[in-house]
Amino acid sequence: MIIVGGTYSEICFEPIWENIFGSGFRAVSLLLEYDKNLKIDYYTCCDEEIKAYLDYHVKLNSNLKLHPTSVFKCPIFQYDYPLKTPTIVPRPDLYSNKKTEIKVQGHQILAYGMLEASICLDGKKVVYDPQSPVNPISFTSTGSKAEQLITIVNYSEAKLITGCSDINDIRDYFFNVENCLGFILKMGAKGAHVFENGKTKSTIIPVYETNQVWPIGSGDIFSAFFAYNWFEGGHIIDSAKIASQATAIYCNSMDLSIKNKLQNFKLPELLINKEPKGQIYLAGPFFTFTERWLVNEIRNTFIGFNLKIFSPFHDVGHGKAIDVVDKDLEGIDESEIIFAIVDGLDSGTLFEIGYAIAEKKKVIAFVQNEGEESLKMLEGTNCIIENDLTTAIYKTYWLLAKS
Predict the structure, then answer these.
(1) Closest Cα to residue 276, out of 186, 182, 401?
(2) In the CATH hierarchy, which top-level class contains the domain 279-401?
(3) pTM for the full predicted model
(4) Cys bridge to 309: 100, 104, 302, 378, which one at CB 3.0-4.6 A?
(5) By the 8 A CB rule, do 67 and 43 touch?
(6) pLDDT (tens digit, 9 = 90+) per residue, 1-59?
(7) What CATH fold (topology level) applies to the domain 2-270?
(8) What is the helix (H) or strand (E) element at residue 127, kind and residue range?
(9) Mind listing the pLDDT tens digit for each residue in 92-121?
(10) Cα 360 from chain centroid?
C-alpha cells in the first residue's frame, strides 16, 4: 500500500496536545498498528527534524519504507482548541513559489493533499482526500490518473472544488468531471453521504455518540481506514461504515490502537437526516475580555454548525435589569437547549440555568474549575456537565438533533 501525505507538528492549547502526525503519518501509524503485516511505502516531505523523526520510526518497523522529499520547513499546525481554525507556521503562501512535485505510481494509493508539495498519481485503485479548507485541489487538477477513484471531501471543500452548494450538483461534478467510481461527502457532526456511480441516491453513514470528542485528525482516520478496507476488497458502503466506527473510537480515546475496540464496538448510532432547527441559548458572564472572548468563540462555533443561537451578549447586550431581563428570559423560552458557561458561578448564569430547568429545558454546562459541591444542583437536575469545550459543543448538537 502506498500512502502520500504530510508529516506535520500539531500543537493544541486546550486540551493540551503536542505531537508529530499530519494526515499522512497519522494514516501510516494507524494502519501499521492495526495490521502488523501491512507493508507501506510512505511518500512525504521532510525538513531535518521531521526526517530524523521518521527515520527513527522506520528503524522500529521494517514494514515501513520512507520516500522523503526535502523542504525548507514542514508546517506546524497550532490550535487554540480543536474546533478553532489552526494557525499554520510558516504561512501557507510561503510554499507557493517553492512547491515541489511528488510523483507516485502504484496499484493501491491513499493520497492526502499537501501544503508544501503538489502530487501527481498514477494508480489502479486510488483514494484521494484533498485536505484543504481554503484551497482544495481536485484530483484531475493535479494531473493524476486512476483506474478506480474514490474521492473523500468535506462539504466546504466540495463547495470550493465544484462551485456548487447543492448536494446533487456536487454529486454530478464528481461523477461527470472527476470520473469517480464513488465519492464520500463528509458532513461533520451529521456523518457522511456515500455516492456510488450510477446511483442517484446516497447512503447516509451515521455518526456515533462518543463520551468525548477529539476531532483533530479524525478525517485522516476516516480516509485511512476506508482505503484500507476498500483496497482489501470491501464494498464502498461497508468500508465507509467501518471507517466511521474507527473514527468514533479515535475521537473517543485520542488513541490509534483501535483493533480490539472495533471488535467490541458498542457506541450508539445517530442518524441525522437534516439540520437541527431548535435554538440554543448561550448563558454565561460577559463582564471581562476573557469572558466575552469565550462567549464569542462558542457562538461563532455554533453558527459554523448552522445552528440557531441566542446570545444575551450579542442579542441583548448590557443594560439595566428593566431593559434586559425580560428579553433574556424570552430567549430561554424560545430555546430548546441552554448551553451554560459555569466557571465563576456567575449569579445571572445560575439563575438562567434554574429558570431553564423549571421550564423543562435541557441544559449543557461547560465547567472546568468548579468543585463537586458547587455543581451538586446541576448534577441532581440531570444537566449534562462537560469539562471539554469541543465535547460540550458536539453533545449540544447531538441533543438538538434528537429533539
Answers:
(1) 401
(2) alpha beta
(3) 0.94
(4) 302
(5) yes
(6) 999 999 999 999 999 999 999 999 999 999 999 999 999 999 999 999 999 999 999 99
(7) UDP-N-acetylmuramoyl-L-alanine:D-glutamate ligase (3.40.1190)
(8) strand 117-129
(9) 888 876 678 999 999 999 999 999 999 999
(10) 32
